[in-house]
């Protein structure tokens, strides 16, 4: 009786096997679906452009999610991705970034966590600590250059219809859930692991759909080849990161073990690598063996047959030309794109479980990710998952591997060893055979080129260049070639027979209110004010690359003659670890997501509607200004704030002095007033900011710093600079938060006046921006501070048209700014009869006259826009 039953079972099993085989065959006949989680660094888009060039019947890139806490800022990254996809004719690819969700104190993960912060520091806000990210340079050579792609992004990439839009942009988690829910998919990771780590923690039921995860990151047995002393060098040569496992060149004194992508969020990386999903890791072990050498660079220069090849080569050339030393060819490696090549080669041979591929040698290794340092079980205030909690977050084990000291930044004293290498290991992908280790497929070395006669010494170099120059699936056009009559035009006003008004310098931090103010200043008759320069403070409400929006607005208004200077990226008292990196003690108060950097960097989704200026930020540089070499076009170098100040002083007519209007942190102005050769040319300073509390209930606007109830953002973001300016003796008129609040009490009234005025392009744009701010304020709690930006316009009116224009009343009080280093009081302004300096304070304006004057000025046909919008500009370029 058992035999027939056994025969039946065999038959059923055979039939099921046939069905599985048929299903497998069907899957194999379909393209492999891929989701790429990326921080949009230069080598990242090398990788996904390589992938998009491959046969779509084999590999189908379904989505890109943006890692928002690494080498780029979300607003700049998302629009660069949209433009790259538009160039490649791939507007079908989903793009996800950010989100407003949070993580509760008990570890509950709410929907749509944005990934702006490492998991360990994520609370209910998108603002917070830069514990790990501070290792990435903020200015030139870091996020500024990557956000702008050295200035090439706006010069080269075409602009399509897709772009960031507040509250309508798909979030990273939404795209992950949607694409992974649809069926089997492979994930490529070339940034921090925050997005996928949060996804796996929140959606364990969906991880079965992830077939494989390919990761560029970590260092297992790697030995850093950079920072070494040359052979036969003198004894005075001190090795730097030479031989380290990691590559964090800004932090090797504290942590020589970690690699940037893993270090950016070690706890999330642990979740990903320990997810029991098959992992292939392409660490520094492999990428260190494929440096961009001179032979490859030369061959690449000859292989620019497609737009994508041109964009990649020009980006690589700018990286080389701006490299900080003379060792580019031994310091810059094929990182993320190498992972892309290895991954697709392995996927083509999916039956080979040893990871055999064309480009790298592979082996299986047991590893783990170090998330905290021994001894475990301590409570030293460094580990938010344990410190001060009865029960650890995420059900972590007390005394377990996650319970030790967590590196607190570049200066963490517990990481330093006297006369030795640092001892912190956060983010180290260490080889281990403990019960906590996991088996991963590891790329260990790049394979040499099999063609001994080729100038290229790596097999992947051949594939990369051949794929990028291939006509199949190539880009459609670049920014200029899409328009048959493209012409670069600059506008300058004809003021030859006009008498200039008082010279004005506008110092702005790129908030929405600042751009509304700039429109106003540009509309005031030249005979009343002569706007000499704009100084940008990139340590306020927007990131440095947003200076491009200033250039676009000036171009729109026909003022390409006005110089724009870029100021310091750090607050005055930050005492940066180096000139490139530091913490975010004050700037962490600004949200990264909605209502913060994401919206300011895209000007709430409207910046792309402005005409495109021929001027833009570029990384071009010159030996004259301290660069190691001249780039190809040093004349296009971005001027710095102090350079612009020094250039305009000689242009001031004898007997005239400069009026300064500041709408942001006082970092730049503090340097100016400290220089007697410059400060003697200042007539008066209008400062928009600060709060003078009348009583205990009269609070400031620092909504993100609960311990500081009476400060205002502009003073808080650089309190020592504010203190320096207030004590300098310059004539100050303060436009404090109280009067700004009175003047900004009615969005609807301002909009009513704007709707009633003449529809000049500038009035239309201002109306659109204010309408959007008003709607967002009514829609979402993250936008409750939008009134602040409406109130900032008051400074432009008072400084340009005088106090009588809005029936202003002032008073003088002795004021002092607190700047003792305590976040709970820094930036607070107090009335101090003994130590305070006399300051004129605006205490009353007629709000109705304020709204009316602003609207009528923007509706004036004089000094109106030369170009109304990007669409108008492109229409001119499409026709003779």
TrEMBL record:
Signal peptide interval: 1-22
Organism this protein belongs to: Acacia crassicarpa (northern wattle)
Pfam families linked: IU_nuc_hydro
Protein name as annotated: Inosine/uridine-preferring nucleoside hydrolase domain-containing protein
InterPro entries given in the database record: Inosine/uridine_hydrolase_dom, Ribo_hydro-like
Domain of life, per lineage: Eukaryota
Tagged with keyword Signal: yes
Keywords: Signal
Domain Inosine/uridine-preferring nucleoside hydrolase intervals: 34-369, 504-851
PANTHER family: INOSINE-URIDINE PREFERRING NUCLEOSIDE HYDROLASE FAMILY PROTEIN (PTHR46692), NUCLEOSIDE HYDROLASE 3-RELATED (PTHR46692:SF1)
Similarity remark: Belongs to the IUNH family.
GO MF annotation: an example: hydrolase activity, hydrolyzing N-glycosyl compounds
């Amino acid at each position: 009786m058992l035999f027939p039953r056994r025969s039946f079972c065999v038959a059923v099993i055979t039939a099921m096997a046939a069905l599985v085989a048929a299903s497998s065959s069907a899957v194999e006949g379909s393209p492999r679906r891929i989701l790429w989680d990326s921080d949009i660094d230069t080598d990242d888009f090398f990788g996904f452009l390589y992938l998009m060039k491959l046969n779509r019947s084999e590999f189908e890139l379904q989505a890109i999610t943006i890692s928002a806490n690494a080498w780029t800022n979300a607003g700049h990254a998302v629009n660069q991705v949209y433009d790259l996809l538009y160039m490649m004719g791939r507007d079908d690819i989903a793009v996800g970034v950010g989100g407003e969700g949070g993580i509760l104190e008990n570890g509950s993960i709410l929907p749509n966590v944005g990934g702006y912060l490492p998991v360990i520091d994520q609370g209910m806000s998108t603002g917070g600590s830069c514990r790990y990210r501070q290792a990435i340079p903020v200015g030139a050579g870091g996020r500024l250059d990557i956000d702008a792609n050295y200035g090439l992004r706006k010069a080269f990439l075409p602009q399509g219809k897709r772009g960031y839009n507040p509250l309508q942009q798909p979030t990273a988690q939404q795209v992950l859930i949607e694409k992974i829910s649809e069926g089997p998919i492979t994930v490529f990771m070339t940034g921090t692991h925050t997005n996928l780590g949060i996804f796996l923690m929140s959606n364990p039921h969906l991880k079965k759909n992830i077939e494989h995860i390919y990761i560029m990151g970590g260092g297992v047995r790697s030995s850093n080849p950079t920072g070494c002393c040359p052979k036969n060098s003198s004894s005075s040569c001190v090795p730097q990161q030479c031989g380290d496992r990691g590559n964090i060149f800004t932090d090797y004194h504290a942590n020589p073990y970690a690699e940037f992508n893993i270090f950016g969020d070690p706890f999330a990386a642990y979740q990903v690598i320990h997810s029991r999903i098959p992992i292939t890791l392409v660490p520094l072990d492999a990428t260190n063996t494929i440096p961009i050498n001179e032979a490859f660079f030369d061959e690449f220069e000859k292989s620019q047959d497609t737009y994508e090849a041109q964009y990649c080569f020009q980006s690589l050339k700018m990286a080389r030309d701006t490299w900080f030393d003379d060792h580019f060819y031994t310091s810059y490696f094929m990182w993320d794109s190498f992972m892309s090549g290895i991954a697709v080669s392995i996927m083509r041979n999916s039956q080979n479980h040893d990871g055999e591929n064309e480009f790298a040698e592979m082996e299986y290794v047991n590893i783990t990710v170090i998330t905290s340092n021994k001894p475990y079980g301590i409570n030293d205030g460094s580990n938010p998952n344990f410190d001060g909690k009865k029960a650890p977050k995420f059900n972590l084990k007390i005394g377990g591997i996650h319970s030790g000291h967590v590196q607190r930044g570049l200066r963490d004293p517990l990481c330093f060893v006297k006369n030795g290498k640092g001892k912190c290991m956060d983010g180290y992908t260490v080889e281990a055979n403990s019960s906590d280790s996991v088996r991963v497929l590891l790329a260990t070395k790049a394979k040499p080129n099999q063609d001994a006669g080729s100038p290229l010494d790596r097999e992947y170099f051949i594939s990369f260049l051949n794929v990028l120059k291939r006509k199949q699936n190539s880009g459609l056009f670049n920014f200029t070639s899409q328009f048959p009559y493209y012409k670069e035009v600059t506008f300058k006003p004809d003021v030859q027979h006009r008498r200039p008004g008082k010279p004005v310098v506008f110092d702005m931090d790129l908030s929405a209110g600042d751009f509304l103010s700039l429109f106003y200043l540009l509309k005031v008759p030249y005979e009343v004010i002569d706007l000499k320069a704009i100084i940008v403070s990139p340590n306020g409400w927007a990131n440095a690359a947003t200076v491009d929006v200033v250039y676009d607005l000036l171009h729109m208004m026909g003022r390409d003659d006005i110089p724009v200077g870029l100021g310091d990226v750090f607050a005055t008292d930050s005492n940066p670890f180096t000139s490139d990196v530091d913490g975010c003690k004050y700037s962490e108060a600004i949200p990264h997501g909605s209502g913060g950097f994401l919206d300011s960097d895209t000007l709430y989704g409207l910046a792309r509607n402005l005409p495109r200026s021929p001027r833009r930020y570029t990384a071009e540089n010159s030996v004259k200004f301290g660069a190691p070499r001249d780039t190809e076009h040093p004349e296009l170098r971005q001027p710095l704030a102090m350079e612009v100040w020094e250039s305009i002083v000689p242009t001031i007519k004898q007997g005239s002095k400069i009026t300064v209007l500041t709408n942001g942190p006082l970092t730049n102005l503090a340097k100016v007033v400290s220089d007697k050769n410059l400060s003697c040319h200042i007539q008066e300073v209008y400062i928009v900011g600060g709060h003078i509390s009348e009583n205990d209930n009269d609070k400031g606007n620092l909504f993100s710093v609960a311990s500081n109830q009476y400060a205002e953002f502009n003073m808080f973001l650089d309190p020592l600079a504010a203190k320096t300016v207030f004590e300098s003796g310059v004539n100050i008129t303060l436009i404090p938060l109280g009067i700004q609040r009175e003047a900004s009490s009615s969005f609807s009234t301002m909009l009513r006046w704007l709707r009633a005025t003449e529809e000049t392009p500038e009035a239309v744009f201002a109306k659109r921006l204010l309408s959007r701010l008003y709607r967002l304020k009514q829609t979402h709690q993250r936008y409750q501070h939008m009134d602040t930006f409406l109130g900032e316009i008051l400074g432009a009116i008072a400084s340009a048209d005088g106090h009588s224009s809005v029936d202003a009343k002032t008073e003088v009080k002795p004021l002092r700014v607190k700047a003792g280093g305590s976040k709970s009081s820094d930036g607070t302004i107090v009335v101090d009869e003994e130590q305070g300096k006399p300051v004129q304070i605006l205490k009353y304006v007629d709000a109705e006259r304020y709204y009316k004057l602003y609207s009528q000025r923007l509706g004036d046909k004089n000094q109106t826009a030369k170009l109304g919008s990007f669409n108008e500009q492109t229409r001119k370029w499409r026709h003779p």
